[in-house]
Design goal:
By secondary structure, this protein is mainly α. The chain is built from 12 helices and no strands. It has one domain. InterPro entries: MmRce1-like, Rce1/LyrA-like_dom.
């Protein structure tokens, strides 16, 4: 447990320090981006430094060898499942909050107006470009950014924590730790905004529910592929798809982001929670 405590101390303290600096001081956009990229690599850097200075070889780290040919199935699962479950979550949210659904892409038009000063004559085309980019391009580009986190959570924390507690407790603890790591971002409105009941702690709790469920899925593909890259791809796809459900959100109604429509919402995360539950049941059946 010693190395787990070291990992958690440095991953939390250094990342939180950088986020507090980024959120409270004004930097040029390019410098803020560089600092944010550096901050999400702190979990990976912490693991690498511990491995370098650890002479007893007590640390388990998942392989960085992509082995694409052998694991093509898991790369496809890592890419396709987050897309499907983001859309399922949005569908569930809009089936409950029907008045929130809008096919005129008003929010996208407002975004275009803010950038260009005038509305688009082809909002459907602009929406399609965003959707296709989120599915086909961005996940693969941003995989390298998500690798920094995944080297920490799935590459180090899960396989080392499971040595000390049961698998189900490991899933829950690893998911909660991952969610709590995001507290500074949740406080400044990331994922849920600033105006919701119980701010910010209900947002922290909601995110932890999602990170437990998503973490189970990411750990499952990591263990089956024996490499960290599919988890990084899945993580990247989740992030990439995050804004797509908002394309259909009406401007006439205030967004209740704590419930959805993004996959991190209480309602829209339910399909991922169900998937995670199925994976846990399968794990138990295999043990028996």
């Amino acid at each position: 447990m010693k190395y787990i405590r070291i990992y958690l101390f440095f991953s939390f303290s250094l990342t939180w320090l950088m986020w507090v600096i980024i959120n409270n001081f004004e930097f040029p956009d390019y410098l803020s981006s560089i600092l944010m990229i550096a901050s999400v690599y702190i979990p990976a850097i912490t693991v690498w430094v511990m491995k370098i200075f650890n002479k007893e070889d007590e640390i388990t780290i998942v392989s960085l060898e992509p082995d694409v040919k052998k694991n093509i199935k898991w790369y496809l699962i890592a890419w396709i499942v987050p897309v499907i479950f983001t859309l399922l979550g949005a569908l569930l949210y809009y089936s409950i909050f029907k008045n929130d659904f809008d096919l005129t892409f008003g929010r996208l038009q407002n975004e275009i107006i803010n950038k260009t000063g005038q509305p688009s004559d082809t909002p459907i085309t602009a929406a399609n470009i965003k959707i296709l980019s989120a599915i086909l391009i961005n996940p693969f580009i941003n995989t390298f950014l998500c690798l920094g986190e995944e080297m920490g959570w799935r590459g180090f924390l899960f396989p080392n924590l499971v040595k000390h507690v049961s698998r189900i407790k490991t899933h829950i603890l690893a998911g909660v730790i991952w969610g709590l790591w995001h507290i500074p971002l949740t406080i400044v409105g990331h994922n849920y905004g600033l105006e919701y009941f119980g701010y910010p702690w209900s947002g922290v709790l909601t995110l932890c529910i999602f990170t437990i469920a998503a973490g189970i899925f990411l750990s499952w593909i990591t263990e089956n592929s024996s490499t960290i890259w599919p988890a990084a791809l899945a993580h990247s796809t989740i992030n990439s798809m995050g804004k797509i459900p908002y394309l259909f959100l009406s401007t006439a109604n205030p967004s209740n982001r704590l419930f959805g429509p993004a996959i991190t919402g209480l309602i829209s995360s339910l399909p991922m929670v169900i998937l995670a539950s199925v994976l846990i049941i399968k794990e138990k059946q295999l043990k028996n």
